[in-house]
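The freezer alarm interrupted the setup, so I double-checked each line after restarting. Inputs confirmed:
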Amino acid sequence: MELVIAIAVGVMFGSGIWLILRPRTFQLIIGLLLMSYAVNVFIFAMGRLWVDKPPITPVPHIDPTQFADPLPQGLVLTAIVIGFATTALYLVIMIGARGLTDSDHVDGEEPRE
Amino acid sequence: MLLTSLVLVPFVGSLLAALMPQSARNHESWLAIAVAAYGLIVAGLLFPEVEGGAVMREEFAWLPAQGLYFVLRVDGLAWVFTMLVLVIGLLVVLYARYYMSPEDPVPRFFSFLLAFMGSMLGVVLSGNLVQLVVFWELTSLTSFLLIGYWHHRADARRGARMAFTVTATGGLCLMAGVLVLGHIVGSYDLDVVLAAGEQIREHELYLAALVLIALGALTKSAQFPFHFWLPHAMAAPTPVSSYLHSATMVKAGVFLLVRLWPALAGTPEWTWIIGGAGVCTLLLGAFIAIFQHDLKGLLAYSTISHLGLITVLIGIGTPLAMVAAIFHILNHATFKASLFMAAGIIDHESGTRDLRVLRGLRHKLPITATLAIVASAAMAGVPLLNGFLSKEMFFAETLHVGGERNWWMSYAAVAMGMFSVAYSLRFISIFFGAPAQDLPRDPHEPPRWMRFPVELLVLACLIVGIAPGISIEPILNVAVHAVLGSASPDYDLAVWHGLNLPLLMSVLALAGGVLLYVVLRRHFDLRERDNVPLIHRFNGAQAYETVMLNLTRAASWLLQRLGTARLQPQLLLMMIALLVLPLLLAGAPPAWTQIPLQDFDPLFAALWAIGGGCAIAGAWMAKYHRLAALALVGGTGIITAASFLWLSAPDLALTQLMVETVTTVLILLGLRWLPPRIEPGDLKPVPPRTVWLRRTRDLAVAVAGGLALAALTYAVLVHPASDTIADFFLLNALEGGGGSNVVNVLLVDFRSFDTLGEITVLAIVALTVYALLRRFRPAPESAGVPPQQRNTADPAHGQSPAEQANSGYLMVAGIYLRLLLPFMGVIAVYFFMRGHNLPGGGFVAGLIFAVAILVQYMLAGTAWVESHLHLRPHRWLGLGLLLACATGLGAWLFGHPFLTTHTAHVSWPLVGELHLPSAFVFDLGVFAVVVGTTMLMLVALAHQSLRAHRQPGEDAAGGMN
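Predicted 3D structure, all chains:
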């Protein structure tokens, strides 16, 4: 499991890096999406991997070692929602820039070859 | 509290003054007068104790952990300066009432002036050095604002900038000096620092502290080589010049030197640095003043020279010199403030300040002329006036400098005396001779109360000059004792000390000054000279401008060499830094203690084979096949959500799934506005070598980055977890937070402040998106109806989305999805309600609800939905934030900190016992904000398709409505 998650994070992050280095705005937004998945999973994994031990405590006085770490989960939950907001903002800037500059290059103008 | 109110009241007054209407000139001045009068009363109440030599302190904890306290402290010196600030302030306010024209925005003026008064009082009353620097910078700031008061004038802006740059830079040096001083002594408290003189002077950092503090003081008091800003500050309204730039603010520098005299003085370094700067300033200022053509310019250079005189006295540093320095500070403030006011009256009445034009004013302005002549006689050091007394003390002190044989300091003093007589004569020459005929305005005596401050100050000059022993000596004593303590010398302020060397010097200076003036006027064409002889090449202002210009040039050169506006190189650098820096910063890896791995599950691996494949394929397709790329990345998102579920994070899985949905819809809405990008197919040209190299480089960075993060993840995962705060949350969620879903309790209770911040960000982003889209203009090629909708063979052609859904080919789906709306609403409520104990909560429920509405939009189009459903996303946003904040504030009512949760147990009929934590209401706020945000963004984006069909320019004001 650990190896799978590690490879998954690496693949998503690598694809993300490749995409954010591309010249078109759409590639950038997809790259940012992939990078945010990678980073979210990465942060989540900092609480280690737990199967079938969700942090839901039905009774008081439980043994905390028998539950998944809730802290990274809480942080990642907010990160997902904020990520959605920033993606929306980026998208609007992307289409706005395209309307203003008539180009979908990240610099707002076609590169001079 | 008395002391505190002394500093606080002017700031409150400043705020009030700012709120008054434009035309309230009288109210403004009454307010300012009341503030100053209040201060005077308080200062008067303090006098009996101060006179007894007591030091009063008021302390507040500021950063107690850092040993910083906000201390207000009044002793004799502080008291005398407080009086100076308040008395001159009161007179200046009265004067300004008549000086400012009704067209000027007076609220701004009085507001700044009062803020300055508060800052200056803060400087003199500070009992903590760091706090003193803060107020010090505030005086620089208010001075900047006041110099630039007439900001439509280029010279005012330039002067303000110059003054601020110089004094604020000095202030930064002072800050550094104070920190060094604090390091040496171990405390920033003034009393402690003053008592540690020996320790400071013997410390190896003494010179550093001295130089830095001197830089602060010398820039503030316009000492050579920083004097150039003061003449340019004369662009300020004359009351400001009179108050800030002659009587008080420029005295802050010398005040600080006097204040720190017990701690820093008494070394050769002190004398050389302070005294040296003072001598240069005094000669330079006095000499240049003779050749000014602007009335205020002359007074400005004269101010520089007198400040130099005070600085020299402080530099000499003997007890008697200190007495003379404090005495001259008071005297100079008195006569120079009155002279500035007189200059303002002349300017106000005749419309010019040009010394070449003004003459014969004594006929039109007899009283003002008399007052100004007396004041300038005080400036020149004529006997029976206050300037004479302190100048003679100065002469007496210069005789002691450098031993019995060294006369250079005395020569310099006499030369300065001569120059000052000469420029004083130049100043009063405007009152004599035939009346000028070519003045812009016909001068008259000013209003009674505009002249009153001048009269009062000139009267003070006379009283102090004639009877110093009974008028000023008690006050001076108080200040001197506060500084010198047991070292206070016996001195005798008297007009006549018998025939002695200082008197001879005075006579010499007077006679020489008159002679110099006559010679210059007769033979050197004083009126027509354009520049100062001999030293006109030394232009401080020019040097300043050159330095500024070169700094700007250097900055833009650096920017050109090291910066780029292009995004790709920036991101590449960032990624490389992300790779390299942690490697450099990380120390040796900790011991490799592996924990038993979880069981390998082939299904999980298969899941990620798909997820990883989707990610790579998405990266591949993003250039030419946007829709495919979006779908593929969505696949990765779904797999991520599934893994969250697998790995015991049901809340994350739910949220990820809903966000995934909304994001995909969002980007789908945006796709339409991007330019078409068709894959070249078989005719694909061979990419040039540079492109190939670039791609290889990027690929290498991407692979390296991916490998690095994978390695890091793996390294962390095989290590046992250290103790975290997680246990606390797990143990207390149910008992303390009243919920068994720890993640939800974490969000709405333990870390609810964080969540409050987050929903605020959401609301801001939503409003930003909305605002950006209001001005959105699509590119012309994507403005029309998309080609897919232009196919006339399609039966749906020409139908509106509503028709398609109500009676067209989407009828079945339409009915079905409309039926679904209430169910989805119920599901949202369900997830919301159970959120505290089971997976769910405000975020998830909000997203579900948003999707429920979104589906209706997708089906029947914007127009139909909005005619049937009145959604006001802005209100959802506002209401949500309000709910969340109100819940937080509610805790205050019960005396708990912000956002403390309280659980109420309510038993309802039918439902039974319900425990209702206040976090529930908070979560409701979160829900509303999430719904509002999502709806606002998606709807704003969806509306663009409606607008796009209109002709560009038709809807210039734009906006969704």
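Quick read of the result. Chain A touches chain B through 91 residues (CB under 8 Å).
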